[in-house]
Amino acid sequence: MRAAVGFASTSLTARCRYNKAVPIPARALAAIVLAAALCLSSGCTKTEEKAAAPVKKNSDRKPAPEFSLKDADGRTVTLADYKGKVVLLNFWATWCGPCKIEIPWFIEFEQKYKDRGFAVLGVAMDEEGFEVVKPYLEQAKVNYRVVMGNDSVATLYGGVDSLPTSFVLDQDGRIASTHVGLVSKSDYENDISQLLDGRAAGGDSPEHHFGMRLAKAQRPQTGL
What are the strands, taking DSSP E only, across the chain? Predict the structure, then answer.
């Protein structure tokens, strides 16, 4: 079942994969109510946000799976089109509440970082297709490209069982970080900045080592 991460529902139906509403059994509903009560009694808060995963070291990054999907204008888009850029690849849907929280951030990131070699690429997972996605893109004034996803692409990226799910890719098309569910805006910005500045977790980026070698070469020699 795919549902918006971090938001409870009192409805007797839930969203399952690709925006289908299914009834929740009474026993399952009771379990949800009990879990919510326990959460309130134990003081858990801010369940809408999850801890962000750090940017991976260069040696730990794996290539993002290639795909070929259509955008809102019917043009074919491939991941290879974005080689050389830092890419925020966001799986989302129009019915996903947390997704709608993130989208204004992504609009801002696209505007702020596009001239530095950054791009947002949205993958809409709505079962109804662009019939429902296009009006939302216009309403939200989305300024980045959005393609229509499918089961095959979701499987390539580990199933994408929760929305939103985002992957931040480095300039070589490798997955540098993964965010499942809603994380903070600053987590995304930290990822983007690190990759655009050539910084990686553990300081193992080529730029880091080059800078260290240059500094050493320029250091005044003593003891001669």
Answer: 13-16, 20-23, 62-63, 68-70, 76-78, 86-92, 118-124, 145-148, 165-169, 174-180
